[in-house]
Every structure is written in structure tokens, then in C-alpha cells.
Amino acid sequence: xxxxLAAALxxxxxxxxLPRGPARAGDAPPPALPALPRxxxxxxxxxxxxxxxxxxxxxxxxxxxxxxxxxxxxxxKDDPPGRSGFAHLFxxxxxxxxxxxxxxxxxxxxxxxxxxxNAFTAEDTTAYLNLVPSAHLERLLWAEAERMGGLQxxxxxxxxxxxxxxxxxxxxxxxDPYGPLFHGMAPAFWQVxxxxxxxxxxxxxxDAATLEDVQRxxxxxxxxxxxxxxxxxxxxxxxxxxxxxxxxxxxxxxGTPVPRVTVVEPPRQIDQRLVLTAAQVPAPAVALMWSGPPxxxxxxxxxxxxxxxxxxxxxxxxxxxxVERDRLAQGAGFSAxxxxxxxxxxxxxxxxxxxxxxxxxxxxxRLVRLEEALxxxxxxxxxxxxxxxxxxxxxxxxxxxxLSARQTAEGRALxxxxxxxxxxxxxxxxxxxxxxxxxxxxxxxxxxREQLLMQPRxxxxxxxxGRR
Length: 468
Prior knowledge:
- The chain has 16 helices and eleven strands.
- Helices cover 40% and strands 17% of the residues.
- It folds into two domains: 7-16 and 38-248, CATH 3.30.830.10; 272-464, CATH 3.30.830.10.
- By secondary structure, it is of the alpha+beta class.
- It is globular and about 65 Å long.
- The model is unreliable at 2-31 (pLDDT under 50).
- It is an enzyme of class 3 (hydrolase).
- Keywords: Hydrolase, Metalloprotease, Protease, Signal, Zinc.
């Protein structure tokens, strides 16, 4: 990731619509929110396979800005065996020189005219994001087509960007005392699916990469029939097809099919307990992980609501109980990582207070207390009362983020892109919002009972590496 995007934009399709649940006596009714605009993109496909989504801003013509985003159907799961981090490496390499552009030209094309650019790699996709004044739309279309078809994949670029990615690994994983914990969850949880390889990759895999490996990866995935171009904001819709055809039409799709992951993660049969160690762990931590549905599943919005109830903000159940009330943890959270092929649900907590010097880390009693506390709060939500005010508050938080995002060209393009990549159709973003609008407390409890209380889980203890 070149620059860190807001977490709300990386979480997937924005969620929309707020129903008014019955308020209990003494509860203030939830605030009325305006209806959020539906995406409703215009869609077409070029002869070379490039898909195009157009989202003109018909509510505010003349706003003056346009988002140009190119989403590729390649992510961390597509890294070749023994070459983890390739998709992420290519995110960086795509900012190097092309046939007609020098290194870092996208900064000049965007920032020098008052816009900006960014990029990120996820498990299922790599996306390149630009926002510029509308007068510069065609220039950005030309530039994106130029780097799709004219990137110079050479030894110098590989050497420089490999060093950048390895430095990023050090900052995000090695230099953060809890980086190894969050980096290690995927390998601990996934049994066979390539989601088990963290997107950022491994330093030794990147060291082993050859120029031929990198060029093969580029040919396989960076092609028009593996990409979705999204244009949103203030532009003339009737002119866009000709502009896109002019710049992207000449690009040829290879005659070979795009490689696709066909591995299916098997159902987990038994509980599993694992220990992860690191050289510097200020306080031990616990993570609990369960299987979840893919992002396109009808229950995906319910799980996003569950994540908000359990782990979003100081008033969420895990933070309020483990951090604020019982003082067992210095931090706690819950995530619903719902991806294109499958999902992982996880709860985590970091113990309060430092590790005890000289004590055996595996025997630290705080590990048991954290594990019990996480399980207890999840059980309470699954079996106890869930006040309408609490569910409405969590839903409002999600909707406030969605409302803010859909007021911008960039936010609408991101919502469409995530839905397209994770669910196969940008319309899924609106369908999931409709689903969120109907979620009731009994559905939340049912899912928690069926998925978290009755299904096998992986328990991960994160501790200081002991001396030998």
C-alpha cells in the first residue's frame, strides 16, 4: 500500500439504510437519516474484455472532480507458491516508468493539478485510485492505459521496489510488537486456501523472486480482460465510451486464460490451539477465529453489524467489558474478514500490564482470563438481550460512514469496486444495504449461536519467545 487508506474504505462495500427499530421505554429514537444514493452504474465491456463502470454525478453536475480507478482481479491469493507478496510488489512497480512515462509520473499527473492518487492490495484485488479535476479525465485514462500496456518490468525496477516492500514489511510487522500477531492470524487459520499467505508476503519469498517470475506474473494478470475501469463524478457520460475506446481499445488481451484460484477451504472439523511467539511481546494476547461466509453471502451485512456491536468503539461489548470495566485488556476487537471465496471471523484481546519478567510465558494466567472473557462476551450477545438502542447505534455508525463516502465521487467508485471484486456485481453494494436495513436482533443472536458457539474455532496465544 503506497499510503494508508481510511479503514472504512478498505473494509469493503459501504453499507446503507437505517430502519427504525422499536425503541424501549426511555430510549431516544435513532436519528432520521436521509436516503443514500444508489450506485446504479452504467456498464459496458470493450472487445478486449475490459469492463467499464460509469457513475456520473447527476445530482451535482459541475462539481468539477472525477475519480478514475482501475481494479485488477489479482490479489494476495493469486501469489505463486513460494512467491508470496507478488501482488503487493506489483502495486509498487506500477508506479515505475512505462514506455512514455517516467517514474512516479502519477504524482505529477494528479497532485500537480490539485488531485491525488493511491493504491492498495488486498486478498482478492489490487486497485489504483486517482482523483483529479474533471478537465484532466482524458489524461488519466491515457495514463492508466499506458501503465497497463507499457510498464517496464526490468531488473532495476524489481530491485528498487523489492527493497521498498521489504522496508514496509519491517515497519508494519517487525517493528510493531503486535505486528506478528495480526500477520500470523491468516496462516494460523486457513488450512489450504491461499488466503493463508499474508498479502504483504514474506521477505525470503521476495528475495527469491527472479525477473522472469515477475514478468510472468505481470503477463498473467495485468491485462484488459482482468480489469474493471471505474469512472465516477462530474463528466459527460455520452463522451466517455469514445474516450475509453480511444485509449484502452488498442490494448490486446492475451490468448491464454487468466489463472484462477480453484482451491476450496474445507470445513473445520475440530478445535485447534496454537501458540505464536515473538522476540518482543510487551503483554500477551489471545485471538479466537471461526469460519465465516464469503462477502457475497446474504448474511454478510449481519456480520458487519456484529463486528460493530462487539468491537467498534469504546462502547462496543468487548472494549466496554474487557478494557473499561474489568481492566483485563489494553485493547480488544472483533473483525469480520469476508472475502470473495470465504471468510474469517476473529475476536482478539491484548492483556493489560506488562509481561512478567522471568515467568514462563505459556503459563501466564492472563491468557486464560482473556480467552474466557472473550468467549463470555460473545456468549452474552448470542444468548442475552440486545436492546434496540444498541443495535441502532451500531447501525448508525456504519451508515454515517456510508453516507460520508457516497457523497464523494471517490467513495462511490470505491463502493462499486469492492462490490464488483468481492461479489461479482457492483449492484451487490446496494443489495447489502437493503439487507442491513432489515437486520433484527434475533438474526444477530442466531448467527452467533450457529457460527461462533456451535462451530470449531482456532485459539491463538501470542507470547514472548522464551529463553532456551
